[in-house]
RNA sequence: GGAGAGAUGGCAGAGUGGUCGAUUGCGGCAGUCUUGAAAACUGUUGAUGUGAAAGCAUCCGGGGGUUCGAAUCCCUCUCUCUCCGCCA
């Protein structure tokens, strides 16, 4: 959620930057500014009204104390009248604030200067590429065939006990999951992130804090009887740990990591290209989250990007980093880098991480602030990134490392799996 | 699930209808003292809105009500604790 004060002060530049999202937000923004004037006016009227009523009430108290009962009784109707007006003013104020909020929810974050123009994935900028395409020969198989051949993951069993998109990992397949999770968590803790194991369900306030609510309910599983949401990413519980918190400046940066399963309904996005592990309703992910000083957030975004690069290199996966264009960027982000690993048999790039700076967009909703050196409270910047999401990593590992003898495990992972080859 | 108690500032903990945004202690910050530190002493120390500022307004778990006036009384919701039951 953008800050109204920012909209007021930087109206033109914000509208210009938002144009990168291929939409003109000037109407909404002007309406927000207009409502804000009404809001401030009503607030002021209400304050004056209440001040008057407070003053009279005190006087009445004093009259009673000094035995001037008649004067006290005489003043009562005046306060009552003020209270009536106050009620109306309060209503106006409330309605104005609500209307303003509703509008604010519809405005996405302001793209950073370096976000490229563009509408679709093809307009994204490749900023880094590492490794080279594996040479697999004619008999290469996509991962959904490999997992059957080596008996690693069972989609049909998952469908039987739950439904489509809920795979069952078996034997070496399950072990590989555990190895990857531990490897990712170790890499993150080595980089200074503190490990957390948060709840997998969150309440409404948390969904709201990170921006999944009120607009994207449809993407989350909702447990109706208890009114809880299954988390679509660890970003939600981790970031919300600091909801309504005022940090000390020296506590920054807060660096958190956590492994969680993630649950996504993916309503409407099922279709071509979602075979096998490409898209699931439940998947595992290690997330990294940082709460930082606003002046440092872009340096830290680069640092997080380097961290994810390091992991992918250790996994020996051919990958690239792309800077998302305005049209492809998420609603809450100011700048996003996606990581895509090469899938050798599908012969296409698979998104395995998305690392973003949200600036104050989340913090404003979360009310996550810090006391700066002047003693003023100021919103932090929040950032997060997948480091990493498992299924597509598994898909790429299986496909790229297939050999006639079996599937080779990258050296960095062997201490975690305990085997260097998956054989039949 | 049954019975009871409770929710106040970073923490602990007073406050049961009027000057209470709230006594006090701890913690934090600044100062005095000290070569320095500790101790002691003194002062200071919540958030939000508005405003250039002074100030004004709002906030004592959330929402509603009674009253001229509510942290204090009433209703309701949520959460926490204790005992019992169940249980990985």
Give the SSE map:
Elements: H1 4-9, H2 11-18, H3 26-65, H4 69-105, E1 125-130, H5 143-149, E2 153-154, H6 155-161, E3 168-169, H7 171-190, E4 194-196, E5 201-202, H8 204-209, E6 222-223, E7 228-230, H9 235-240, E8 246-248, E9 254-263, E10 282-292, H10 297-314, E11 319-323, E12 335-343, E13 348-359, H11 361-366, E14 369-371, E15 377-379, E16 381-389, H12 390-400, E17 402-403, E18 406-408, H13 414-417, E19 421-422
Helix pairs in contact: 3-4, 5-12
This protein binds one RNA strand of 88 nucleotides through residues 39-40, 43-44, 46-51, 53-54, 56-62, 64-65, 72-73, 75-80, 83, 246, 248, 377.
Report on the architecture of this protein.
With 424 residues, this protein is of the alpha+beta class. It has 13 helices and 19 strands. The strands form five sheets. It has an eight-stranded mixed sheet with strand order 1-11-12-13-16-10-9-4. The model has no long low-confidence stretch (mean pLDDT 92). It binds one RNA strand of 88 nucleotides through α3 and α4.
């Amino acid at each position: 959620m953008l800050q109204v004060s920012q909209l007021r002060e930087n109206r033109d530049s914000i509208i210009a930057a938002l144009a990168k999202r291929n939409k003109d937000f000037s109407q909404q923004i002007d309406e927000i500014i207009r409502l804000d004037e009404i809001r401030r006016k009503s607030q002021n009227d209400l304050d004056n009204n209440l001040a008057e009523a407070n003053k009279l009430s005190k006087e009445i108290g004093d009259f009673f104390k000094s035995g001037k009962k008649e004067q006290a009784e005489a003043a009562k109707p005046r306060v009552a009248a003020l209270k009536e007006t106050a009620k109306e003013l309060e209503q106006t104020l409330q309605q104005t604030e609500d209307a303003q909020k509703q509008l604010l929810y519809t405005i996405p974050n302001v793209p950073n200067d370096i976000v490229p123009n563009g509408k679709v994935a093809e307009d994204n900028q490749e900023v880094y590429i590492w490794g080279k395409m594996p040479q697999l020969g004619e008999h290469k198989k996509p991962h959904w065939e490999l997992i059957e051949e080596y008996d690693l993951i069972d989609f049909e069993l998952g469908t039987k006990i739950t439904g489509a998109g809920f795979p069952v990992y078996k034997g070496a397949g399950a072990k590989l999951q555990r190895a990857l999770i531990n490897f990712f968590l170790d890499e993150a803790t080595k980089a200074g992130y503190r490990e957390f194991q948060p709840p997998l369900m969150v309440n409404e306030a948390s969904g709201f804090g990170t921006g999944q609510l009120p607009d994207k309910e449809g993407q989350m599983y909702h447990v109706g009887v208890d009114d809880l949401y299954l988390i679509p990413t660890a970003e939600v519980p981790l970031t919300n740990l600091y909801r309504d918190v005022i940090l000390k400046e020296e506590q920054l940066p807060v660096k958190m990591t956590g492994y969680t399963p993630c649950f996504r309904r993916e309503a409407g996005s099922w279709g071509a290209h979602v075979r096998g592990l490409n898209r699931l309703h439940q998947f595992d992910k290690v997330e990294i989250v940082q709460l930082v000083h606003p002046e440092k957030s872009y340096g830290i975004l680069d640092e997080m990007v380097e961290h994810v690069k390091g992991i992918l290199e250790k996994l020996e996966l051919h990958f690239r980093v792309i800077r998302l264009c305005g049209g492809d960027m998420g609603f809450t982000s100011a700048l996003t880098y996606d990581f895509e690993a090469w899938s050798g048999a599908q012969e296409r790039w698979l998104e395995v991480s998305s690392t973003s700076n949200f600036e104050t967009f989340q913090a404003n909703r979360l009310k996550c602030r810090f006391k700066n050196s002047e003693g003023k409270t100021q919103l932090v910047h929040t950032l997060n990134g997948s480091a990493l999401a498992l299924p597509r990593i598994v898909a790429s590992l299986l496909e790229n490392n297939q050999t006639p003898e079996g599937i080779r495990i990258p050296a960095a992972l062997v201490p975690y799996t305990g085997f260097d080859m998956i054989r039949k």
